[in-house]
Design goal:
- The chain is an alpha/beta fold and 214 residues long.
- It has a single domain (4-203), classed as TIM Barrel, CATH 3.20.20.140.
- The protein contains 9 helices and 8 strands.
- Strands 1, 2, 3, 4, 5, 6, 7 and 8 form an 8-stranded mixed beta sheet that branches.
- The longest helix is centred in the last third of the chain and has 21 residues, at 136-156.
- The radius of gyration is 16 Å and the shape is globular.
Length: 214
């Protein structure tokens, strides 16, 4: 599995080209990045996966957006909201990642949603930007929410992704630094390794548990 930063924002959202972000990612030890609203490609040996972020829309609009992107190869993410919304989008075929859980209500992702995420292979994203750039209450809130998520992950084993949400090369971090940041939320090295490979795991079709041999 490739080591992936699951969300970066090239120009015009950010201030660096996708090529510049990819080359920086290579220098920091990554094999791939998910670049929002950017065509797929390869730069300096780093695979750029096109990312679609769906935010602040009702479930019916999420369904429409996912249908339009069917078979596009894009990494489809939906921003978390309340518990009912999160359960609904986790159950949609084609949704890969639930994001922004640190900003949602504490009850927005419970054991039922966790079981659904595991069954449907939908990842929960750990957005590291509040830890990297956040201060005081915002930073502590994110850390505590992620610790809650990791408790559920240990029980239900749903996929996790890690994102810097970088808008410039200055926002990016190397793999070792990311492992250090993740230790703040109770992730050990194997946890970090699985999460860095999380994008690949949700995009790879599951291996059938039973194989028929002719």
């Amino acid at each position: 599995m490739k080591i992936t930063d699951a969300a970066v924002y090239p120009y015009p959202i950010g201030d660096a080209s996708v090529r510049r972000l990819a080359l920086e990612a290579a220098a920091l030890g990554f094999d791939s990045i998910v670049a929002v609203d950017t065509p797929s490609g390869t730069y300096g040996g780093v695979e750029v996966r096109s990312g679609l972020m769906i935010r602040d829309v009702p479930v019916k609009d999420v369904i429409s957006a996912v249908k339009r992107s069917k078979d596009s190869g894009r990494v489809i993410s939906v921003n978390a909201a309340n518990n009912n919304f999160n359960r609904a989008v986790i159950g949609l075929k084609g949704v890969h990642i639930l994001r922004g859980i640190q900003s949602a209500d504490k009850l927005a992702f419970d054991h039922v949603a966790a079981k659904m995420a595991a069954d449907n292979r939908v990842a929960v994203d750990i957005d590291l930007s509040p830890i990297i750039m956040g201060r005081s209450v915002a930073r502590q809130r994110a850390i505590h929410r992620y610790m809650d998520i990791m408790v559920l992950e240990q029980r239900f084993e749903f996929p996790i992704t890690l994102s810097t949400h970088a808008r410039s090369v200055l926002d990016m971090r190397n793999v070792r630094d990311i492992a250090g940041l993740c230790s703040l939320i109770g992730m050990d090295v194997p946890d970090v390794e699985r999460a860095l490979a999380g994008v690949g795991s949700v995009l790879t079709p599951p291996v059938p548990s039973v194989r028929v041999i002719a």
